[in-house]
């Protein structure tokens, strides 16, 4: 559960505030990332947005979908999957 929470926080921060979080912020996930996510303030600095002019929110959805699909494919390829 902690790994899932950590991944969710990392993806949320990457999609919204990236690495511009001020060091004096005590809780950047609750104070910066979640409000930015709720308000739809996604980071436009990604390959799909820069090269193909895709909206940042759709780029985030594509990234998460590809990540979960790739993770699912690796689980499927695992040797104990067929047992």
Folded structure, characterized:
The chain contains 4 helices and no strands. The radius of gyration is 15 Å and the shape is flat. The longest helix has 22 residues, at 56-77. The chain has 83 residues and is mainly alpha-helical. It has helices at residues 2-16, 28-39, 47-52, 56-77. The relative contact order is 0.11. The two termini are 25 Å apart.
Quick description:
The chain has 83 residues and is an all-alpha fold. Helix content is 66%, strand content 0%.
Write the layout of secondary structure elements.
Elements: H1 2-16, H2 28-39, H3 47-52, H4 56-77
Helix pairs in contact: 1-2
- Alpha carbon gap, first and last residue: 25 Å
Largest sheet: none
- Apparent shape: flat
Total DSSP E strands: 0
What proportion of the residues is helical, as a percent range?
55-70%
* Beta strand %: under 5%
């Amino acid at each position: 559960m902690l790994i899932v929470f950590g991944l969710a926080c990392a993806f949320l921060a990457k999609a919204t505030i990236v690495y511009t979080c001020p060091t004096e912020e005590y809780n950047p996930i609750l104070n910066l990332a979640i409000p930015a996510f709720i308000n739809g303030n996604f980071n436009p600095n990604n390959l799909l947005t820069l090269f193909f002019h895709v909206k940042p929110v759709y780029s985030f959805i594509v990234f998460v979908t590809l990540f979960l699909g790739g993770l699912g494919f690796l689980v499927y390829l695992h040797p104990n999957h067929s047992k």
